[in-house]
Design brief:
mainly alpha; MetI-like fold; two-stranded antiparallel sheet
């Protein structure tokens, strides 16, 4: 018999570097515009961008900005990880159990409508100014979009899928891991993306009020002492941190949802060509 090569299993999807690079043209354009616009600036509040970048490099190389950066990164990673664990776990259970979903609905609506920033003074008074209260504040603000998106993702799974799982008598732990969690994963990760932006804001707010360290404290101290270039340098660094975390999350999402992104184009309905003449559908002119 002639030799036939074994079919290769499809490998993991390629990382979405091209979409990421395509998104960089606008930040690059803004960078060039600011570089040119502020080149000869003599304003006290808007120093040249080259001066701001030089201060940023000097603070990272010889100052305490690295320590502030690591402190902020640790807080946001811990807070977001805790929010993801609690939000996904609770969302899977609430989304699957109808009685629990109806009972917790008003509480969830009230909690997500309450601004988390309003809890900052209470948290500082009760828990202090250490790292723990900041992680708790980030968790408190980030858990709601993850929780609500998880519930919505579980409810979006069709009843036929649940009937099939019950028909095969798949036990609950395996059903959660193999059926419910993969089906809700696209909306879960969408909730994590929203939670990430909230976490960055709360990271800065928690460090501005009652913190001896962190990027928020760096901005506060430099602004209070009228070191405007340092203030802009800290602001730019926070933007870089937020963008880097969003890109990292995009790579994780592409890795986990490669099957989803590969299937979506095939399931997308073909576009209907524009009508070139009067067509009749069910007796009506369209």
């Amino acid at each position: 018999m002639p030799w036939k090569p074994k079919p290769r299993r499809p490998g993991p999807p390629a990382l979405p570097w091209k979409p990421i690079l395509r998104q960089l043209w606008l930040p690059a354009l803004v960078f060039v515009v600011l570089l040119v616009a502020t080149a000869g600036s003599t304003s006290f509040y808007f120093p040249p961008l080259t001066e701001v970048l030089a201060v940023l490099w000097q603070e990272l190389a010889h100052g305490d900005l690295v320590e502030d950066l690591l402190f902020s990164l640790r807080n946001i990673v811990l807070g977001l990880a805790l929010a993801t664990a609690v939000g996904v776990g609770a969302g899977l259970v609430i989304g699957e159990v109808r009685t629990l979903r109806l009972a917790t609905g008003p509480l969830l609506d009230f909690a997500r409508a309450t601004p988390t920033v309003g809890f900052v003074p209470v948290i500082i008074l009760t828990l202090g100014i250490g790292s723990g209260p900041k992680v708790f504040l980030i968790f408190l603000g980030s858990v709601w979009p993850i929780l609500l998106n998880t519930i919505s993702g579980v409810r979006s799974i069709g009843p036929a899928v649940h009937e099939t799982a019950r028909g095969y008598r798949i036990p609950w732990p395996l059903r959660f891991r193999r059926v419910i969690l993969p089906g809700a994963l696209p909306q879960i990760l969408a909730g994590v993306r929203v939670a990430l932006s909230i976490a960055v804001v709360l990271m800065v707010v928690s460090e501005i009020y009652g913190s001896p360290i962190g990027l928020g404290n760096f901005i506060l101290q430099s602004g209070s002492s009228f070191h405007v270039a340092e203030t802009w340098a800290g602001t730019i660094l926070i933007g870089i941190v937020g963008y880097a975390l969003s890109v990292l999350l995009l790579l994780v999402e592409h890795r986990l949802l490669g099957w989803y992104h590969q299937r979506a184009p095939r399931e997308r309905a073909p576009r209907t060509p524009p009508a070139t003449s009067i067509e009749k559908s069910n007796g009506a002119v369209v």
